[in-house]
Amino acid sequence: MWCSKNIKTSLINWAGKVLYEANLPHFTIHSLRYTNIALQIASGVPLITAAGRAGHSRTSTTTDIYSHFIGTSDNVAANVIDSMFEKKNDQKSQALLKLLNDMESMIYQS
């Protein structure tokens, strides 16, 4: 009967073999997992989706661990809003955009 130690060893050996055969440097399973989740968040994948894929039962676990990447995905959201206002280049839209950008700056400075 297999125990968890045998499964862990097999997984580590398998990952090492895959990385070697792909001519990639050695990475731990943990670093590959961390990078996977971080890239999802930085690419704008909804936090609840990334948390679920990571196996976290609460999104707060994900935000506690990966909070420094959330700012990156927030930049993606800000760029989407910017592009919406750029298409509608009237004075009210530009004033609202400036207000939103100022508010964002104040939030991230604190």
Describe this structure in words.
- It is built from 5 helices and no strands.
- It has 110 residues and is mainly alpha-helical.
- The protein has one domain.
- Helix 2 packs antiparallel against helix 3 and helix 4 packs antiparallel against helix 5.
- The N and C termini lie far apart (54 Å).
Short key terms for the protein model shown above:
mainly alpha; 0% strand; 110 residues
- Using the alpha-carbon principal axes, give the shape: elongated
Oligomer: single chain
**Number of DSSP-assigned strands:** 0
Radius of gyration: 20 Å
Low-confidence stretches: none
Write the element-wise H/E pattern from the N-terminal end onward.
HHHHH
Largest sheet: none
| Mean pLDDT rating | 77
Structural class by secondary-structure content? mainly alpha
List the domain count as a whole number: 1
Overall helicity: over 70%
Give the DSSP E fraction (strand runs of 2 or more residues): under 5%
* Total of helices: 5
Distance separating the two termini: 54 Å
